Amino acid sequence: MTSAGDGNTTVKLPAEALQGQRTSSAYRLALGDAGVQAAVILFLCVLWETVTRLDLVHPFLLPPLSQVLQRLWEDILSGTVFVDLALTLYRALSGFFIAAAIAIPLGVLMSRSAALRWFFDPLISVGFPMPKIAFLPIFILWFDIFDTSKIIMVAFSCFFPIVTATFAGTSAVDKWPVWSARSLGAKDREVLWEVVLPLASPQIITGLQIALPVGMITTVVTEMLMGGRGIGGTMITAGRFADSVGVFTGIVEIAFLGFVVIRSLEYIRGRLLVWHPESRR
Amino acid sequence: MTMAAIQDRSHADSGTGIVIDGVSHSYGSRHGSGVLALDNINLDIRENEFHALLGPSGCGKSTLLYLIGGFIPIQQGTIATRKGKVTAPGPERSIVFQNFALFPWKTVLQNIVYGLKKQGIGAAEAESRAREFINLVQLKGFENAYPSQLSGGMQQRAAIARTLAVDPEILLMDEPFGALDAQTRRVMQEELRAIWQRSRKTVVFVTHDVHEAVFLADRISIMSARPGRIQHVIDVNLPQDRGEEILERPEFLELSERIWRLVREQAISASRGEH
């Protein structure tokens, strides 16, 4: 087929080339960022070690980093660190996913039904600012002192940021793409899946990104309050035995776990939102 | 430029395209105290004609277009096409908006394929037809670009391709070139007229630009300031083939001047009404 486009395409730069340029420069930027961040962490580590080596701080209050890392290495060899990490991660992620599975549909439904909005909006306004951990004794009474009450506690605290972000995102969707889809032949219910959810996805993902650290914090706090295994439980046990190296090893583990989990979510966001201008900064 | 994808409808009889009968519309009027946007509009838009709705901003011309599109419920009166009374949006009355309204999470190709799939066309055929329309609007090489990577003019080409691809009987255009710079706008106007020459769809084109209306349309409805009424319906007796040279022709300038004077009265009363 002949087309007027054939004569004119040569003057335009193909989109692939544009994308290619962007990706390579974005890579260089990302590498530079990672370098600076690593340098900051390295600097703090050196500072920690130096301060303790020079006996500026009592080793009980702040044990040297090298001792902490040595303990971490022993725990890795014995395998206990993996049990703690896995338990904490399992509780945090289970609660997080349960919360997402309830909060995303509810947020969407609230944006589409006035009755649901009237019912849930005041509950969410009251519940969001409330310290969720205050409900822990209730969950212990209702469920158990093991995983169930911890996971429900985590799900409960993750629920609010996700439902709020989903509701805000799906109610603020522009009418123009929705009307476009309708005039191209989409049915009303297809529009929800095919237009509203993709358009609201940046905000929904932001809600998830806020909820996940909340879930991690809640997991560690419940573990500390209820004892047993998991990073929080192990830290509290170490504290009770005046094992300050053990406590600081727990801190390093939390920092590592938090970093990995948050970065994973950022990575997933980038993959899901390749179309969004934010992905091409 | 030959274009297999667009059917030649020039042989079709010029019957009735859209009948607008006694349509009134007011905004924010649950208790009847709202703003009257349209007041008793009666208008027959002929089949296969390029019809421009021209009027000052706020005269309700976009509202009338959205009512034809079925996007907002009709409060009073009826709008009918060959398919019957308008009650909801449908692919036989597809629309192009001023702000393009592409799906930002889909590439240019995926945007066009979406509408074709909604018509029940299989994936392979939808893609090959989408590529034909990408060529038609001269976006070859940008199939896999996301809307946010394109200029305004290119986004509007993609939106026009998406709408033309579903082969609507009626093409609704809501100030489609209003967000473009003057040069791009001129080029897009010529291309739209050329595409219309070949496809002969019924086009309802909303604009406040007199030259744009005269250059593109066969008939122009001039609307009054709010509440919107049809003041005049004017035939544009210019050649069917319209290139840039027509902008200099005396009959073009004369008609533009005449229409401008009619619109000016309305614009003045609109601006007085606002103060």
Briefly characterize the structure:
Chain A is about 80% helix and about 0% strand.
Describe this structure in words.
The complex is a heterodimer of chains A (281) and B (275). In chain A, helix 3 crosses helix 11 (244-272), helix 4 packs parallel to helix 7 and helix 4 (80-112) packs antiparallel against helix 9 (188-226). The longest helix of chain A is centred in the first third of the chain and has 39 residues, at 15-53. The two termini of chain A are 38 Å apart. Chain A has eleven helices and no strands. Chain A is mostly helical. Helix content of chain A is 79%, strand content 0%. With 275 residues, chain B is an alpha/beta fold. Chain B has a domain at 16-92 and 197-274: P-loop containing nucleotide triphosphate hydrolases (Rossmann fold), CATH 3.40.50. Chain B is 36% helix and 23% strand. Chain B has helices at residues 61-69, 108-118, 123-136, 152-165, 182-199, 210-216, 250-274; strands spanning 16-27, 35-46, 50-54, 76-81, 84-85, 93-96, 170-174, 202-207, 219-223, 230-235. The radius of gyration of chain B is 19 Å and the shape is globular. Chains A and B meet through helix 1, helix 2, helix 8 and helix 9 of A and strand 6, helix 2, helix 3 and helix 4 of B.
Query: What structural class do helix, strand and pairing data of chain A support?
Result: mainly alpha
Tally of discrete structural domains of chain A: 1
Helix content of chain B: 25-40%
What portion of residues of chain A belong to β-strands?
under 5%
What global shape of chain B is seen?
globular
CATH class of the domain at 16-92 and 197-274 in chain B: Alpha Beta
Query: What fraction strand of chain B?
Result: 15-25%
Examine the secondary-structure arrangement and name the CATH architecture of chain A.
Orthogonal Bundle
Q: What is the H-and-E element order of chain B?
A: EEEHEEEHHHEHEHEEH
- CATH class of chain A equals Mainly Alpha
The poorly predicted ranges of chain A are 1-17
The CATH superfamily of the domain at 16-92 and 197-274 in chain B bears the name P-loop containing nucleotide triphosphate hydrolases
Helix content of chain A: over 70%
The pair of chains with the biggest contact is: A-B, 36 and 51 residues
Largest sheet of chain B: 6 strands, mixed
Averaged pLDDT of chain A: 87
Mean pLDDT of chain B, nearest integer?
84
Backbone CA Rg of chain A: 25 Å
> How would you name the oligomeric state of the polypeptide chains in this document?
heterodimer
